[in-house]
Give the backbone structure.
Amino acid sequence: MCYREVFQTRYACGHEQPTAERKVDCNNRRCRSSSVHPSNCAVCHATCAQSFERARPIVTAVGNGLCYHCAHGVA
Ligand SMILES: [Zn+2]
Ligand SMILES: [Zn+2]
Ligand SMILES: [Zn+2]
């Protein structure tokens, strides 16, 4: 199944904030979210995956200091 990669920055407080995301296509015709899935699929709900997998967070950067919420005193 397709999923989203979520690129995140991790801050000193331990929190992570997403900065960008992209869809990763599984290239499976039995997955409704894939670009190779036929648009005229007959009984899609019975034969095909209907939803995305859980997003996969990827830490791409380490930020200095606290995240936005901690820096502004918002829990
Ligand atoms: Zn897929
Ligand atoms: Zn289908
Ligand atoms: Zn924080």
